[in-house]
Batch of 2 targets.
Target 1
Amino acid sequence: MSANNTQGRLSADAKAALLNRMRSTTPGGAAPVAAAATPHYDTSFATLPGFEQLKLMHAATNAFGIPNPFFRTHDVRAGATSVIGGKEVINFASYDYLGLNGAPEVMAAAHGAVDAYGTSVSASRIVAGERAFHRDFERELAAVYGTDDAIVYVSGHAANVATIGTLVGPRDVVFHDELMHNSAIVGTQLSRAHRRWFAHNDLDALEAMLAADRASYGRALIVVEGNYSMDGDAPDLARLVDLKQRYGAWLMVDEAHSLGVLGTRGLGIFEAQGIDPRSVDIWMGTLSKTLASCGGYIAGSKDLVDYLKLSAPGFVYSVGLSAPATLSALTALRLMLQEPERVARLQANSARFLAAAKAAGLDTGAADGHAILPVIVGDSLKAVVLSNLMLDRGVNVLPIIHPAVPNKAARLRFFVTAAHTPEQIDATVNILKEELPKTDAFIRKLAFAGISDMLEGGAGQG
Ligand SMILES: Cc1ncc(COP(=O)(O)O)c(C=O)c1O
């Protein structure tokens, strides 16, 4: 039977044939037949969980001529515009919120850092990698939050994994929002602490969990984001502070998408909601977004930072942040503070995009209009197809699909920045409005062929 029989439906036989064809072209994919007396140990990567579904999906999208929207290669520095495949596009796929990646001062700081210190500090900070610029940067980060100190790691993901993995263990519990970023979840899993998650921003549910279970554990950590990376909405920080105080827990807030975005000076959720930042135990952030660099940080009390600097494996056993990464981020932080008009421009652009999208009847989910703008299309393949149609029309925006979000919550995610012009925003929403209906016919064809249902399932983050 052919993959496209007269009905256009991909039968079970056709799917199996597709898989067999893939296995035969995958090195190591065909499982060797074990000799009778030799135990069979699986050494194939192709039998790892999820591998078959992934390959099947690729084969199916290839069969239907749908280009892969991931790993698109940019030919230049990606800002409000970029060049992909030799063609200039409006770019909504980079979280350079204040347009500081490429700012002359930031570039000069990176060049100067390379000239003075080279491209690497060539050791963990604890053993020969420490430089004065590390401490300067940590002090200035701590000043943002009014905390005693801060610690910088070589990646934001590593900052969450290493910090959570160091602070809690098997007797402890971590409560987190169901949409919490993967790095905090992986940190919790590796720590072997108990893990409890609550429905997105449902602090009544969190309180019920704390009331019912808090007493069963040693230490408790509540982890949330200040501006959620998939939905662009914020939790009620005052209530979280109250809960952590009443139930004897630490509160950790991941500000990856809040720094430079929320509050009139871009200081983040505490500024936007008028909360004393010292009432949060652990502030976390990344250098890869507003700060136009690469790395992550934790700000908090002296005890916390001292402890992490001696105990967190991702810090102790990993190289120190390089000079260009540190000094470009430090310069970006100073520019953020000196030029609040960048923050104001980002906020105006975000509000404009949200209002235009709503006026066009697009589903923007729970977005508050703070830099992250989801346009929910409700089907992973539809999101992929729409992303490709947008690129054809000169707009680069990436789909977020299962398992990053449930299939029914699949979306295009727009990162709005201070560098976008009102014209770019208006043109994009108009193109979106025109292209979205074109996906329906395509999706009907795929659904009929039995492709779409392969992608059904729950969120991978929780
Ligand atoms: C909420 C959140 N936390 C942590 C990270 C990890 O940061 P980085 O990419 O800088 O390692 C990300 C990355 O996108 C994020 O969105």
Target 2
Amino acid sequence: MHTLKKVWSDECTACYKCVDACPVKNTLDVRVAQNSRPLPSWIFGTLVTGVFIALIGLAMITGKWQNSISSDEYKSRFKELDTPAYEHFGARGH
Ligand code: SF4
């Protein structure tokens, strides 16, 4: 594995742990394309967060971020979370 020039895996979540753990600095990096510049972890995190916020914001603006449950029902159900109605049998040794 240490002789590979490139790791291309759909299992990679771009966590940067391998980049941080490598004892030889500037050996490993994350790029969006083969000839692109290395992508620092803070930029990657900012991009992922930005896309996430943009998609949710777009869904909220266009009214697609709703369901049939009212805010009042959410508030009512939230108060019942610690009641037996929402107890998960097996989770507490039942
Ligand atoms: S960034 Fe490195 S350690 Fe993290 S998932 Fe991808 S290959 Fe694995």
